[in-house]
Amino acid sequence: MNRFTPFWSRCKLAISVLVAAVLFVAIFFVRTDVASAKDLSNRLGIGFKNQSSVDLPSMAVQYWPGSELGLSVSLGLDTEPTKSKFSGMAKIYRVIFPEDNLNFYLGAGAGVLSLEEVGKNQSGFELMGFAGCEFFLPGLENVGWSFELGTAITSISSGTRFRTFGDSPLRAGAIFYF
Fold first, then answer.
1. Which CATH architecture has domain 43-177?
2. Can you spell out the DSSP letters for 92-140?
3. Can you tell me the mean pLDDT for 44-62?
4. Which of 25, 80, 102, 148 is geometrically suited to a Cys-Cys bond with 132, CB 3.0 to 4.6 A?
């Protein structure tokens, strides 16, 4: 260990603190003009989601009767021979933190599932609790992109399982609001 090691350690610490301070100022104090999330009261949207335990993109209809409460229904279907899949899900959302360009929400969902594997049909239900956010990009104020994460219990003919889930950017839901 040479005599410059303590000095270099203090320099690295000072540089880290400086970078963190600059990022803090940039994130919280620099104002940019971005699209604001629309008040979704009485808005109906149509799009897709993929959050059930059956890996099956689903068509979704979402409705917000008020600014804080939302409802959605999604339906996924694949009639592939000997490997068919079906998923139907209903969800309720409650906005917890409205932000300038996104709404952070908590929710719950319930649905039915059916899987066919090697000629055996397995069907059952799924219950989930989740947190998520829906955000709007500048210039696309009627298109909401949503990410959700949470826990679920799935019970089908072959057994019951508990799972966690989360959306990656490639599995994000997209809803177009009228």
1. Beta Barrel (2.40)
2. EEEEEEE-SSEEEEEEEEEEEEEEEETTEEEEEEEEEEEEEEEEEETTE
3. 88
4. 148
Look-up of token digits 């966690």:
164
Task: Kindly report the average pLDDT of the chain as a whole number.
Answer: 80
Strand, coil or helix: what is 13? Answer: helix
C-alpha distances (whole Å) from 57 to each of 77, 96, 137, 156 are 8, 26, 22, 19
Cα–Cα distance for residue pair 146/7, rounded to 1 Å = 47
Per-residue pLDDT for 9 more than 70?
no
Q: What is the pTM of this model?
A: 0.73
The alpha carbon of residue 87 and the mean position of all alpha carbons in its chain are separated, in whole angstroms, by 18
Owner of token pair 């009627």 = 142
Q: What does the longest C-alpha to C-alpha distance in the chain come to?
A: 73
Domain ranges of the chain: 1-30, 43-177
Distance CA 120, CA 11 (A): 65
Distance between CA 56 and CA 8 in Å, rounded?
53
Please state, in angstroms and rounded to a whole number, the distance separating the CA atoms of residues 28 and 35. Answer: 17
* Residue positions counted in the chain: 178
State how far the Cα of 78 lies from the Cα of 128, in Å rounded to an integer. Answer: 22
